[in-house]
Amino acid sequence: MMKSMSWRARVHERFGARLGLTLFVAVPAAALAGLLAVAVESAWDPFRKLDQNTASYLHDHASGHPLVIRILARISDVGGPTPARAVVALLAVVLWVRGARRLALWAASTMLAGAVLDGGLKTLVDRARPHLPNPFAHAPGASFPSGHAMTSALACGIIVLALLPLLGRKGTVVAWTLAALVVFAVGYSRVALGVHWVTDVVGAWLLAVALLAASVSAFQTWRVEHGRRPAHPVTEGVEPEAEKVLHLDSGVVKSGHAGSGR
Description:
This protein is an all-alpha fold. It has a single domain (about 15-45, about 50-250), classed as Vanadium-containing Chloroperoxidase, domain 1 (Up-down Bundle). It has 10 helices and no strands. It has helices spanning about 1-40, 45-60, 65-80, 80-95, 100-125, 145-165, 170-190, 200-225, 235, 245. The longest helix is centred in the first third of the chain and has 40 residues, at about 1-40. The two termini are about 40 Å apart. Mean pLDDT is about 85; it is low at about 1-15 and about 250-260.
């Protein structure tokens, strides 16, 4: 009986966290994004009507309010792919310099995978962008998925998951809440400005969730294989031990830290 319990405990420790993330988050989110891509490519009528009605409503609502349009444009600019990738790149550099090198590689590789996925799906689906009267903004390229929505969601997720070891319980709640608000604001701005359909944004969010879950799952696999306990990413980050090198008062980077990943 003890041997059976020990075996089950080892299996749960080795596979539990990554299987949970993969089976219950990454796979469903990716599947829903795939179904959504097929639906929009085939111009499925319910989604077509949803997109057109939402685009028209938000466009009409913003018309005649120059301040609202300027705010939406600023949100879209600040939350665009270039600023988001720059912030994550800076984070990766800081993590690397302070000794959290595995964490730095995780952040950079996840963001890079997002860029590749976004470009590949845009080419594959090749969906036309909205054509509205008196558009507030213009954007080149295909529409699905929204690069702004996907990149901002990935960036916010990466930043929070990397820095959670520095936050307490209240800080964790605040961080996730702020991240959600930023992601929603960027996605909303893209639809309200008339450069994306609402399904472009929803699809981008689903893809970001799937990619984040898959990358965190892969990182957890590395942790277990190197003798570390499975982390609880949503509450303690992907690398809880990184707290030792992330604190601003930790001084010069020290070799051999548990969070260094060397």
